[in-house]
TrEMBL record:
It comes from the Bacteria. SUPFAM superfamilies: vWA-like (SSF53300). The lineage of its organism: Bacteria, Pseudomonadati, Bacteroidota, Chitinophagia, Chitinophagales. InterPro entries: DUF58, vWFA_dom_sf. This is DUF58 domain-containing protein. Residues 62-257 form the DUF58 domain. Pfam families: DUF58.
């Protein structure tokens, strides 16, 4: 007599493992218009730095003296009357702004100490970006990766394409609880950035969502190279325990070695917090030089609340 064991899939809270319904709700949040502003979010994310690229439509640039062949409909009659010579308005035709979203779903992203794990916060940020792009009428696509490989979704102006992109995130996200080891893999992110650069042309908004747990000089070079002909935005996902460890006696391990940690011992707690702040500030300042803004999202709060506070 044969006994069949039912293959029951393990279910996790949505804060630990996301699903498609959880990500699709961002479509309604974006359509409601209460999260992001009506004007392009990348201009806000760039802060004091003007975007190197433009949105779609016509953008007024300057008034200059009339040249034979200019469209008479663009004559600025006020300036012409004031100066006594004919002047024309000059417009720049703006370009399409497709978005390419790079989403890190590697093993180091499966960590959270309060509400969400980093991988879910990253998934929420990706969904928000994809639906915002779709709402403004531009193409959206991206690349989702982990240690096993990646999914490439060619940018299109399609809700079904966005849904497919989010499903790829879900499939990689639900594999994270099955991980046996967690190791920083700097080369993985570098390969994905190189793949991104070979996949897109120019005039994209490239959003890279990761905890940037282990980056090196090559990572920074890849991001700089991407930014030469595109607007690059870095979404840094962090957990409160990245910035400060709780008081008390802790046992910390990397799977091979372990130490007993206490914040008060040798001022370890303060040094740990200072190191996080200094590293983040150095990174932010370095990328600001290349007009690459960084947005910081905590796992302790919902993404939509944080974005509303930032830009609302």
């Amino acid at each position: 007599m044969f006994k069949f064991r039912k293959n029951k899939e393990q279910h996790y809270p949505p804060e630990v493992v996301t699903d498609l319904d959880d990500l699709m709700r961002f479509e309604y949040l974006v359509q409601g218009g209460n999260i992001l502003p009506a004007h392009p979010v990348y201009s806000l994310l760039a802060g004091r730095h003007a975007s190197k690229l433009r949105g779609r439509g016509l953008d007024f640039e300057e008034v200059r003296q009339y040249v034979a062949g200019d469209d008479i409909r663009n004559i600025d009659w006020k300036v012409t009357a004031r100066t006594g010579s004919t002047h024309s308005k000059v417009f720049n035709e703006e370009k399409e702004r497709p978005t390419f979203i790079v989403v890190d779903q590697s093993a180091t992203m499966f960590f959270g100490s309060q509400r969400f794990v980093k991988s879910v916060t990253a998934a929420h940020a990706a969904a928000l970006s994809a639906f915002y792009t779709l709402k403004r009428g531009d193409r959206s696509g991206g690349l989702v990766f982990n240690e096993e490989g990646y999914d490439y979704i060619s940018p299109k102006r399609s809700k079904s394409l966005v849904q497919h992109f989010l499903q790829c995130i879900v499939e990689r996200n639900k594999k994270l609880p099955l991980r046996k080891t967690v190791e920083a893999n700097t080369e993985l992110l570098n390969r994905m950035l190189q793949r991104t650069r070979s996949s897109i042309t120019h005039d994209y908004v490239v959003t890279v969502i990761s905890d940037f747990f282990a980056i090196d000089a090559e990572t920074k070079m890849n991001l700089r190279n991407l930014s030469y002909h595109n607007d690059v935005i870095l979404v840094h996902v962090f957990d409160p325990m990245d910035a400060a460890l709780p008081d008390g006696k802790l046992l910390l391990s990397d799977g091979r070695k372990q130490i007993e940690w206490k914040n008060s011992r040798h001022n370890w707690g303060k040094k740990y917090g200072d190191d996080f702040i200094q590293s983040r500030n150095r990174l932010q300042e370095e990328f600001r030089h290349y007009k690459i803004p960084m947005v910081f999202l905590s796992t302790a709060f919902p993404v939509e609340e944080q974005v509303t506070r930032l830009y609302g």
